[in-house]
Amino acid sequence: MMAEQRERTFIMVKPDGVQRGLVGTIIERFEKKGFKLVGLKFVWPSEELLQQHYSDLASRPFFPGLVKYMSSGPVVPMVWEGLNVVKTGRQMLGATNPADSQPGTIRGDLCIQVGRNIIHGSDSVESAKKEIGLWFTDKEVVGWTPANENWVYE
């Protein structure tokens, strides 16, 4: 498999997505697209972990509320692999504000308000590496070859 097909992204179902029972729906969308799941957890994150995760937003006025909200219940962090998975994953999520998200996107179809936008996705390859390293150990990200790979990639 060519190196660019091994690009990885970090996707996390937020507490509202977990509470609404949307984990399976979100996984299904990434699987149907043809991306490969290589890491998955169900965790109740600490405020400390979330402060690290969202450190780039630390100076923003909404930061304390974001950390409090994200630590209010379990989340499902995942690692997905595939060609252009960071960019395509962001397109699949839709705009941060669901009101600006197109129908057919996860946020466009499944949520209404920015404070309950159900999912996080890495915004760059560099962010993905940082976020994956924060949430997963090397042993928790599994390299494998799905049987359908030749039907997804030429």
From TrEMBL:
Its cofactor is Mg(2+). It comes from the Eukaryota. GO terms for molecular function: ATP binding; nucleoside diphosphate kinase activity. Keywords: ATP-binding, Kinase, Nucleotide-binding, Transferase. CDD domains: NDPk_I (cd04413). SUPFAM superfamilies: Nucleoside diphosphate kinase, NDK. ATP binds at residues 14, 62, 90, 96, 107, 117. It catalyses: a 2'-deoxyribonucleoside 5'-diphosphate + ATP = a 2'-deoxyribonucleoside 5'-triphosphate + ADP. Its EC number is 2.7.4.6. It is an enzyme of class 2 (transferase). Gene3D superfamilies: Nucleoside diphosphate kinase-like domain. The active site is at 120 (pros-phosphohistidine intermediate). It holds the Pfam family NDK. The keyword Kinase applies. GO terms for biological process: CTP biosynthetic process; GTP biosynthetic process; UTP biosynthetic process. The keyword Transmembrane helix does not apply. Residues 6-143 form the Nucleoside diphosphate kinase-like domain. Belongs to the NDK family. PANTHER family: NUCLEOSIDE DIPHOSPHATE KINASE. This is Nucleoside diphosphate kinase. It comes from Bombyx mandarina.
